[in-house]
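This section describes the prediction task in plain terms. A model, or a person checking by hand, is given the sequence of a single protein chain and must write out its three-dimensional structure as a string of tokens. No templates, partner chains or ligands are provided. The sample shown here is typical of the held-out split.
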Amino acid sequence: MVLNMKRNNIIEALNQEKLIEHKQRVAFHEAGHAAGIHLNNKARQLPPIFFKIIFKDMGEVTDADIMAYQTTHDDCLARVEGGRLIELLPPSIDSLVRELTQHNDAMAQLLHDYMKAFEADVINLLIGPLAEAKHVAETDDELFNHQLVNLKALKNYGGSSDLALAHEYLQSFSPNQHQREEKLDELFTVAFDFVNDRANWAAITKLANHILSNSKNIIDCEEIVSMLDESIDYFQNRRVVAGHQHDG
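The expected answer:
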């Protein structure tokens, strides 16, 4: 009887540990997406877009949910709703180019703006699993670099659906597989550098911690944007003060 109680206590403690780990990974994943949508788009001088983070009640998360996450490495317990600049992809960008550029220079500018939005959407999709991967690496005291965390590895960090959607974008980018792969590698590098930036990572971490300490199932756009901007401002102010102290 005593042995059974001890075993049950150990199992319960392990399950609780898995749940905490799962919550943390989900929080960093969604915080990464949110930071990309706001901070990456802002840096690229793209218009602000509405989005929010929606969570399943973590009290309802079962062992089966965690097991499914560990098996498929894809998460359906949280998601960013909205946030995409391009909702309806054209059959091909080549056809869009022909349609727009045959009119006038103003249309050429529209095409340029479209490509900026196109690239930002893909980058923001990749930032989510990359943020989760960086969190896991730091938790395990491991390195976070391009060799250890590449595009294929993102499926291990809840990135299966993100990668599937990114591939949908790239299908419309070019019929040529080599061109698609090159473009995706290019955008992956941008996403990786975004997550690895100290100011961006501080903002992602702050938002993830807020998610973990928050009991709400929906975190709205205004709250997210305010928190990310406050974090970036604080980081930049610290950098300015450190620079003045160094000069002094």
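For orientation: The longest strand covers residues 51-55.
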